[in-house]
Amino acid sequence: MGHFTLDNASNNNTAMQNLTQLLLDEREFTFDPDECRIRCFPHIMHICVHHTIDKYTDADFTNVAAQWFNALQQPINKTAYLRAVQRDPIELGRECVHALRASG
User: Fold this and answer.
1) pLDDT for 30
2) What is the pLDDT along the chain (104 residues), one digit of tens a residue?
3) Dihedral angle at the C-alpha atoms of 46, 48, 51, 52, nearest 10 degrees?
4) For residues 21 and 6, what is the distance between their CA atoms, to the nearest angstrom?
């Protein structure tokens, strides 16, 4: 059995205790709910990343120079770049994972 990432809500404590008892009763499998639960920090990081992505993808770039350059002073297509960042990168990642899994 793997690990579960859950926030610190009390109902998650109850769920983990119930899972522990269920696994023991029905499968004779010993499960440590404290050892197999990853608490809060990943949940907080997930929320922070979502807020950052939301703010960035909603940013107004209309007053930024029309011509952009990368670190090597090569021009960047501003329109293509903005289209890329305005997509939901997390959902795009999920779509890629689903496509890879579906393809075998």
Assistant:
1) 93
2) 788 888 778 899 999 999 999 999 999 999 999 899 887 777 778 888 888 877 777 777 777 777 788 888 888 887 887 777 777 777 777 888 888 888 87
3) -110
4) 18
Q: Are 78 and 84 in contact (CB under 8 A)?
A: no
Phi/psi at 72 (5° precision):
-95, 10
Strand 75-76 and strand 68-69: pairing? antiparallel
The Cβ-side half-sphere exposure at 80, using a 13 Å CA radius, reads: 5
pTM for this one? 0.41
DSSP designation for 35? T
**Short-list 51, 92, 59, 95, CA closest to 78:** 59
- The CA radius of gyration of the chain, in Å to the nearest whole number, is 22
Round to whole Å and give the CA distance between 36 and 96: 28
The CA–CA distances, whole Å, from 4 to 18, 45, 48, 91 equal: 14, 15, 19, 21
